[in-house]
Structures are given as structure tokens and as C-alpha cells.
Amino acid sequence: MRRRDFINIAAVSAAGVGGLAVLYPLVSQMAPSKDVLAESTTELDLSAIQPGQAIKAVFRKQPVFVRNLTPQEIATANEVAVDSLRDPETLTERTKEGHGNWLITMGVCTHLGCVPLGAGEGENKGEFGGYFCPCHGSHYDTAGRIRKGPAPANLVVPEYEFTSDTTVVIG
Length: 171
Ligand code: FES
Prior knowledge:
- It is an enzyme of class 7 (translocase).
- Its main location: membrane.
- There is one protein chain.
- This protein is an alpha+beta fold.
- The protein has 2 domains: 3-31; 37-170, 3-layer Sandwich (Rieske Iron-sulfur Protein).
- Helix content is 24%, strand content 25%.
- It is built from 3 helices and 9 strands, in the order ααβββαββββββ.
- It has helices at residues 3-28, 34-39, 71-79, and strands spanning 42-45, 54-59, 62-68, 102-106, 129-133, 138-141, 146-148, 160-164, 167-170.
- A 3-stranded antiparallel sheet has the order 1-9-8, with no helix packed on it.
- A hairpin with a 2-residue loop joins β2 and β3.
- The N and C termini lie far apart (60 Å).
- The relative contact order is 0.15.
- It binds FE2/S2 (inorganic) cluster.
- FE2/S2 (inorganic) cluster binds next to loops.
């Protein structure tokens, strides 16, 4: 066999293998694998988050804020006349029964999608003590509800459940 023939045969078999390799992921994509399903949820350990602290996590490639509200922050949120809100919701409706101190929201401003400040240590929490979006000046309160600025709606509460007192699964 001449050297050129060998090169041609090698190229053809590489193409054959390549064809199979492309086909397999296409077929296997139809059923989401365990990896994909796992990626679509985020499990968080809340045990280190003290009252008054918050963390930023990632859920489906977007920021999510998890905040341990102080009794004062809960009281402040509950004092507000719900009817006066742009997007009327109580703190109770935005938290889980028995875990009313845990405010879990997407960290995505409902105006144009910037990441608000307020979850990090020392960050500006805005005029209502919750979160502040510096892009165009939206202020969210301690329940993550829009109170001032252009954002049309409250920070979105994702689907989540507590699997223990200190573990939450988002998604
Ligand atoms: S994106 Fe937050 S105020 Fe505009």
C-alpha cells in the first residue's frame, strides 16, 4: 500500500468515527441525563448564614440571593400596607411556612436584568433596607418587593423547597 492510500483510508475511517460521535449526542440529548437534571437544581447549605446576612448563589446560570432576615427586617416588611405596593405581595407569600426568615429570590432586577446590590457585606441596600439596583435606581424592600424606581415587579421567588432546616434545593 502506498503512503497516500494509507492516508486516504485513515481519513475516511476518522470521518466514519466522527459521524457516529456526532449522532450519539444528538440521540442522547432527547432524554436529559442525570447531570443535566442535577444542573437544573441548586442545593444550598444555609447553616453559616447568620440573621442579617445574605449570600449570592447561582441557579441555572443566574444569581440568586438567599437572605436570613432579622426579626426587625421581618417586622418592617409586615408593617407595609400591601395594597399600596406596585406588585402587592406579603412577605408570608414570598417565603415558606416555618421558614419565614429565609427570603430566597433571584438576584436579577425586574427592570432590565442588572444584579442588584445588598446581598454582599457592606453593599448599598437602598432606601428600604433590601436591595438596590444601581443601573437605574430601583429600590427593593426587606421582602424583595419593588418600592421605588423603574422596576415593574418584585424580585422573582424561584421554586424551592427545604429538605432540612438548613438545606434548601432550588429548582
Ligand atoms: S436594571 Fe435595575 S433599575 Fe434598571
